[in-house]
Write a structure and sequence with these properties.
about 325 residues; seven-stranded mixed β-sheet; 11 strands; elongated; binds adenosine-5'-diphosphate; about 40% helix
């Protein structure tokens, strides 16, 4: 039986649709298990500056359908210093909080791992990021919603691309991971995806141009991950203008559109399952793990594995996109 009796929840780093569903699930499953639950506002900043409120089940009513995070999120430099983390620990002790649920991406879970080791403090992480770049989980909270948003945007851009017979580079998020670009391209029937995992190894644009983009069509859509490794949509468009002036090239950068909106059913269910599993993890005396999902089963992934471990892109997806864009 776990020693954890009172937990705090925070959301940190980039927001992702479904974070609210996760907060709701952690709160309700926690209260259901007899734990006290505290909402910590503005990520690690709120931990250091004591922005903490005890939650009842009502605090999380009517939020499952809302994008963003009711707890707000922030980036916090102080937490990267030992003094800042000591301050955070003192605040937790003052509130008699003895376990923490951190919902966020790679950076937030890195902070969680360091803090957990430093103070032997039980932490369970939930993967909350649209980028889907955490190792050990098939998907992350927010990824499916962002993917659907991208698909809808590309569908709309295609109307104008086809009418004007243009080549469109559409930039999507994914600094170090091409999941959104690759699966967005498949879902929207785009010609290609230019992603960091491949761009570091080969010149994808040169290959596309050599292949004449999509020979049988009068317009082309290419999804580009925003990473420096790809050159971004602007950089690629400039290259085409310089090297192949025959193309009528346009750029669309989807930007923060991709983060917002009501979470899809998939993300709400994923966040609900993962939030409830975070409470199970405490009750099982698990600590310093991220909750993941593998083949539709909840798994515990040690922080050391989930973070900074490259999640390889599925080659079958690349091949499918190539074969369907002839
Ligand atoms: P994300 O979680 O979306 O990847 P960030 O990389 O911005 O977002 O990280 C969010 C916060 O996590 C940072 O502002 C910082 O407070 C904390 N963090 C990130 N990296 C570290 C680190 N190496 N040590 C301590 N805290 C960190």
């Amino acid at each position: 039986m776990s020693n954890v009796k009172s937990i705090g929840i925070l959301t940190s780093g980039g927001d992702a649709p479904g974070m609210n569903a996760a907060i709701r699930a952690v709160t309700r499953a926690g209260i259901c298990a007899g734990l006290r639950v505290h909402g910590i506002y503005r990520g690690y900043r709120g931990l250091i500056f004591d922005e903490i409120e005890e939650f009842s089940t009502q605090n999380v009513s009517n939020i499952i359908q809302r994008g963003g995070t009711i707890l707000k999120t922030a980036r916090c430099k102080e937490f990267t210093t030992p003094e800042g983390r000591q301050c955070a620990y003192d605040v937790l002790r003052r509130h008699e909080i003895d376990g923490l649920v951190v919902i966020g991406g790679d950076g937030s879970l890195t902070g969680a791992r360091i803090f957990a080791n430093e103070f032997q403090f039980p932490i369970v992480g939930l993967p909350g990021t649209i980028d889907n770049d955490l190792y050990g989980t098939d998907t992350t909270i927010g990824y499916d919603t962002a993917l659907n948003t991208i698909m809808e945007c590309v569908d709309k851009i295609r109307d104008t691309a086809t009418s004007h017979e243009r080549l469109f580079f559409i930039e999507v998020m994914g600094r170090e991971a091409g999941y959104l670009a690759l699966n967005g391209a498949i879902a929207a029937g785009a010609e290609a995806a230019i992603i960091p995992e491949i761009s570091t190894k080969q010149d994808q644009l040169a290959e596309l141009i050599q292949n004449g983009f999509r020979k049988s069509k009068n317009s082309s859509i290419v999804l580009v991950a925003e990473s420096p490794a790809t050159g971004g949509a602007m950089g690629l468009a400039q290259r085409v203008k310089d090297e192949f002036p025959g193309y009528d090239v346009r750029v669309s950068i989807l930007g923060h559109l991709q983060r917002g909106g009501s979470p899809t059913a998939h993300d709400r269910i994923l966040a609900s399952r993962m939030g409830a599993a975070a409470i199970d993890a405490f009750l099982d005396d698990q600590r310093n793990v991220m909750i993941g999902i593998k083949n539709d089963e909840i798994v515990y992934v040690p922080f050391t594995k989930a973070i900074k471990n490259e999640k390889p892109i599925n080659q079958e997806l690349m091949n499918t996109l190539r074969r369907l864009s002839i």
